[in-house]
UniProtKB/TrEMBL annotation:
The record marks 239, 282 as: Lowers pKa of active site Cys. Keywords: Transferase. This is Glutathione S-transferase family protein. It comes from the Bacteria. It comes from Streptomyces cadmiisoli.
Length: 339
């Protein structure tokens, strides 16, 4: 498929590529694209399996936008009809009234030939897709939805650090976020080795940076941390084996493993992660890589809750703000998906 996030990539005999988001309208404070920020008007559709959608889930929770922007979680196993709302009664989203996310795409553009990807933001009154621009959605949540942020919400994209954040995120996206996919869906040895080398080169370049500072940019959590975390949290569970990114495991890199655990144990990160959804999606949907659809029993997840000692580096995860409160009722990750 083509589009923005997971379920959207093209693979097969040709080299892997991730196509650009087709629906790139923005929801802004001034409504310049025709979509003004408005309480309750939009619904965020995500899969907890998808790293690109997980960015939006984490950002929404950190910023306290749960009451302003409702969220629908799809089944981890999409089929040819697209992501579907199996977790809900009668397999139908209770707000949008649809069974498949493709219905919202069709209402926006009938006969759209591209893929149906998450994250997606849907206009509730009309039921049509607004955007599937996974790169921009979280930036807009941080900068355009500020009037609706909770008291004490962190600044995830501080203006004074944006150039550095953008530079770090660009390298992480190219070599890590998307690099694991290029390795996993490679169709030739040279293509695979180049992508896999990029993944570990970038991770090894980030290691000394994170050895001396708690977060990627500045002394607080930013968008850059969110984007790296969503790949790291999936690394040993799926990317190491399923995508053959196996030069070493995350747990074997003392610095990155501690960094990932620090974020996982921070409210807004680990409490959004569903390892059951992650493993089932990758191993059961990617039949070209795993035709048996067997889901491995491991890895042991208990390590995610062990002490990380990253607080010794200083830093202020939420700056002058505060952590988010408990997970909203009905949005808790089931016990089957937690360490």
């Amino acid at each position: 498929m083509s589009g923005g996030g997971d379920g959207d990539s093209t693979y097969g005999r040709k080299p892997f590529r991730r196509s650009r988001s087709h629906f790139a309208d923005r929801i802004t404070a001034d409504g310049r694209d025709g979509w003004p920020v408005d309480v309750g008007r939009y619904r965020l559709v995500v899969s907890r399996a998808c790293p690109w959608a997980s960015r939006a889930v984490i950002s929404r929770r950190l910023l306290g936008l749960e009451d302003a922007l409702s969220m629908a979680v799809t089944d981890p196993l999409q089929d040819s009809r697209s992501w579907h709302f199996g977790p809900y009664p009668d397999g139908r989203d209770p707000v949008l009234g649809i069974r498949f996310l493709s219905e919202a795409y069709d209402r926006r553009e009938s006969g759209y030939p591209g893929g149906v990807s998450v994250p997606a933001v849907v206009d509730v009154p009309t039921g049509q897709l607004v955007t599937n621009d996974f790169q921009q959605i979280t930036l807009d949540l941080a900068t355009e939805w500020t009037a609706l942020h909770r008291q004490g919400a962190p600044d995830l994209y501080p203006e004074r650090l944006r150039d550095e954040i953008d530079e770090v995120m660009a390298g992480v996206y190219r070599d890590v976020n998307n690099g694991v996919y290029r390795a996993g869906f490679a169709t030739g040895q040279a293509e695979y080795e180049a992508a896999c080398s990029d993944v570990f080169r970038r991770l090894e370049e980030l290691t000394p940076r994170l050895r001396r500072q708690r977060h990627l940019v500045g002394d607080t959590i930013t968008e850059a941390d969110i984007r790296l975390f969503t790949t790291l949290v999936r690394f040993d569970a799926v990317y190491h084996g399923h995508f053959k990114c196996n030069r070493w495991k995350l747990t074997e890199n003392q610095v990155l493993w501690a960094y990932a655990r620090d974020l996982f144990q921070t409210p807004g990160f680990g409490d959004t992660v569903d390892f059951d959804h992650i493993k089932r999606h990758y191993y059961e949907v990617h039949t070209g890589i795993n035709p048996s659809r067997i889901v491995p029993m491991g890895p042991d997840l208990s390590g995610w809750l062990t002490p990380h000692h990253r607080e010794e580096l200083g830093g202020r995860p939420f700056g002058d703000g505060t952590p988010p409160g408990p997970v909203s009722r009905g949005e808790e990750v089931p016990a089957s998906g937690r360490p």
